[in-house]
Specification:
nine-stranded mixed β-sheet; Jelly Rolls; 16 strands; about 525 residues; about 15% strand; single chain; JmjC_dom; alpha+beta; four-stranded antiparallel β-sheet
Amino acid sequence: MTREIPRIHDQSTPWLKLLVEFGFQNEPFILGSESTSSWLARKEWVLPDGRLNNEYLKKSYGNAIVPTLVNGTSYELTTLTEFLENMGDPNVYLKDWHFQNEFGTSMYTPNPFFSRDFVNCETWTSNNDENPFGDDYRFVYIGAAGSWTKFHADVVCSYSWSANICGRKKWFMMSPGSEEVFKSSSTDSGYVEDIREYQELFEQANVITFIQEPGEIVFVPSNWYHQVHNLEDTISINHNWMNSTNLGLVRDFLSKREEDVRNELSDCVDSFTEEEFEEKVEDILYADARLNKSKFLKLCELVRESRSTRKDDYDCRNHGLEVWKCISSPDCYSSITSICSCSISFCAKCSNFVKQLEYSIVSRFLGLSFFHWAKIIYFKFQMFTESQLSTLYDCATTSTRLPNDFADNEKDLKTIIRYGELFKACHSSNSIDYLQKAEDLTEEEKVELKKTVTQKLANASRSEDDIPWNVNIVIGNSHVAKSLRPIINIKMPSGENFEFDIDSFAQFRQQLAQIVLVVNPQE
């Protein structure tokens, strides 16, 4: 049986009910047109017959410079007036216009569920120097009938919501994991661009198809792949956003992408110092995912600081102040939804609850106690900085005493000894196999320890054979997610320069090894 997306027409539906039923569970829903009936955008941007009010738009915003996607491949800038006067070509789609940056948000009022938004609804949103994302993720889209958006999931595992101001859209959507049915090796994204060409796979992928009517708002949860088609001339307001309920998914996404980047660079890791390599990983991760580990932690810090002045703590009967645990605990859902019945604003009760939820979530990722401001051990590896792990490695592999102040009240002596033993074994074998096989380590510990060992082994190798060479990483444009192209330049002692890409360099190394074996079979 074909699944349907729940439609909610009752404007008195408590926002906490939306949070629990859809935010906690990462499920989609549609708010009926009643939810936008009071928006100025619905009144000013639309004619009585439901069509775009082009004259109002040109008069109010006509000189604005807007981005248009042409043939689904390249962006061109034009004025809004010029776009509207030539509107009609479905191959030219006004997308990703940061309307709100220039004209504010007076034309619409998000539902309270949507307004708990760490990306677009905070004091740091309008401060690009402080904003971890460098900009907002609030957009206006305008497209002619027939324009469409390719099959995709939203950036960095974010949520999104899309409000149709006028026009109708056809959606294809599927739950996380189902997108694997549409994998493709011939596209940059790794998935087909138009799933309509593979309708025989719809049943296998449990594709959900629905029409979004004028005034309706679609909530797209994290990692739900979708494809959207404008059935009529359409204008929509869209936010990509994060809050307490999907921050864990964002963190998992970044961890996976960081691992991918490290694997991409594994052949050239010994071309950098430890600090340079980590900086390069962060730079590439940000270019690829538009967020990285340091900026994610900065976001958590900003949220924690802004929520630290809450007046009353919500004390869960199951989890106390560790409210983040409520997200995956159905036993807590009914007590949360009974806090209040607010539907269009926040009262003191629901405000205190959600601030406590947000505070506990970011504190979890920052490794801060929920009861103190002191550091705690959330994962064992968080007891150690990268510098401390480096020191532990050096001491363990050279039988040198650790500094007197290395062991403090937060460090478990058994863990220090265990890490030291693993470092020594990896150093002796010149490999990370011992870490990979260690059953008593968490995956998080393995990742952190592997970084230290990999760098140390690389540094040791470089000191034995100090041929000057460097690696330049060339990153493609921001719309191509996996366009890493390492170029290896080797400067020989004679002054000659050789340039390789990864494939040709691998062949060069193999040929060089064969020559060495011929000249000296003992090598």
